[in-house]
Amino acid sequence: MDLYANEWQTFRRITLPLVAPGIAAAALLAFSLSFDDYIITNFTIGTEITFPKFVFTSAIRGVPAQANVIGASMFFIALAIVIVGQVLASKRKSKVQLVPFTHGKPRKYVWPGFHISWHCPL
């Protein structure tokens, strides 16, 4: 890394402080939307049992196996999507090669099968 900082120090001192407000805002937004979903469901439910009401009553009485299965399956599906996306992105990134250039010559990026070049005024 630059200036003798390793990856952890760079994350802790630069990246985390920059993204912390976004993470906090996303957590508050997710909480307010979930809370709003429960409140609206509770007022308009009638005699039916919906998923937010089922989760709330399960939390009061004790969590049944069905809620654990649903939560775990949602987590693992989301985790699988993220892992597949990261693998595909890393494969795509490894195929792209930056060709070095000198000032005044066109900059070239080489992709398998075709070439793109343009003039860079730097």
Write up this protein.
It is found in: Cell membrane. It comes from Halteria grandinella. By secondary structure, the protein is mainly alpha-helical. It has one domain (2-92). Helix content is 66%, strand content 11%. Strands 1-2-3 form a 3-stranded antiparallel beta sheet. The model has no long low-confidence stretch (mean pLDDT 79).
Blueprint (SSEs and pairs):
Elements: H1 7-44, H2 51-61, H3 65-95, E1 97-99, E2 107-111, E3 114-118
Antiparallel strand pairs: 1-2, 2-3
Transmembrane segments: 14-35, 69-89
Pfam families: BPD_transp_1
Subcellular location: Cell membrane
Query: What are the segments in which pLDDT stays under 50 over at least 5 consecutive residues?
Result: none
Describe the global form.
elongated
First and last CA, distance: 24 Å
Give the spatial strand order of the biggest sheet: 1-2-3
Number of helices: 3
In total, how many beta strands? 3
Provide mean pLDDT, rounded. 79
What is the H/E string?
Answer: HHHEEE
What's the domain count? Answer: 1
Using only C-alpha atoms, the radius of gyration works out to: 25 Å
> Structural class of the secondary elements?
mainly alpha
